[in-house]
Amino acid sequence: MLVARNIAYRSELQSTLRYSRKLASLNRLLAGVAHEVKNPLNAMTIHLELLKQKMAGAARPVAAIRGGGSREERSRTTRTRTACCGTSR
Fold first, then answer.
1. Is the CB of residue 47 less than 8 Å from the CB of residue 56?
2. Cβ(83)–Cβ(73) below 8 Å
3. Which residues contact 7 (CB under 8 A, 6 or more apart)?
4. 70 SS3 class
5. Tens digits of residue pLDDT in 48-83
6. What is the residue-averaged pLDDT of the chain?
7. Other C-beta atoms within 10 Å of 74: how many?
8. How many CB atoms lie within 10 A of CB 64?
């Protein structure tokens, strides 16, 4: 008895499956690379934003110390400086 089967469909299916697995592996690799690149960029962005805020905030107390601010601002600046540095001047 002879049984003949058309294996072309099966071969094509296996080829498609291999291709899909390769694409999935490539996707995982690229996702890892993107993650490793994005993390340091996010950290730098956050720290630059914090630095910008600190620099913007530092300009106001200097003006207040020089007499450009209100009495409350000078008092707050003096308290902050005393708490941080242990001195009022």
1. no
2. no
3. none
4. coil
5. 898 988 888 776 555 445 555 566 766 766 777 666
6. 79
7. 17
8. 19
Q: What tokens does 59 get?
A: 């300009």
Q: Which two tokens stand for residue 75?
A: 């008092």
Please tell me the total number of residues recorded for the chain in this structure: 89
Question: Are 48 and 42 in contact, with CB atoms under 8 Å apart?
Answer: no
pLDDT at 88 over 50: no
Burial class (CB in 10 A: 0-12, 13-18, 19+), 73: middle
The DSSP output letter for 88 is -
Residue whose token pair is 């058309």 = 6
3-state secondary structure of 86: coil
3-state secondary structure 3-69: CCCCCHHHHHHHHHHHHHHHHHHHHHHHHHHHHHHHHHHHHHHHHHHHHHHHHHHHHHHHHHHCCCC
